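Progress against Task 2.4 (sequence-to-structure conversion) is shown through the following example record, which the project officer requested during the mid-term review.
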Amino acid sequence: MLTFLQEEQFDDFYQLIEESFPLDEYRPYQTQRALLSHPHYQIHTYEKDYELAAIFATWEGPDFIFIEHFAVKASFRDGGLGSKLLQAFLKQHTKPIVLEIETPEGEIEKRRANFYERNGMILSQWGYNQPALAKGQSAVPIVLMSYPKPLQEQDYQSFKQWVFKHVYTSD
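C-alpha cells generated for the chain above:
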C-alpha cells in the first residue's frame, strides 16, 4: 500500500506539501530535498492511478515515530482514503506515533483534530511553538497528538528534546 518515495517523485511530493500546508509549516525546496539523505527521515507515498495521491513524511526517534507531514491530494479527498491510509500507517508501526497539529481553535483546525481523533489519535495538553523553518517564516503554535496511548509528561519532554535536536535544527 505505502511505498518509499523515489527520488524522481520528489517534485510531486513537494508540490503536494505546498498545496496542503501553510508556508510556515514546510521547508524551502532545497532544504526539504536535502532531508532525503537524513538517516532519521523517510517519506512514504501512496499512488493511485499512477499519480501521487498521499504522503507521510516521518522522523524516527528512539522511542517513537513523528509524522511531520501527512497529506492527501485534493482530488483524492473525501472518499475515506486519508482515514484508510492513516489507520494502516498506525497499525504497521510498533513504536508510538506522535504528530503536531495547529492548536484547534479555528474551524479548519478543529476539523483536523477531529479527523485524527476519529482515527485513533489522542489530543494531548502538550505543545510548543514550532520554530520558523526558514528565514522569513514564522513560528507556529502547535499541540501534540499521539497513538496508541495518551502522551504523558515524561514522553512529551523526551519527544520535545529529541525533535528540537534532530528536526528543528539548522544543520
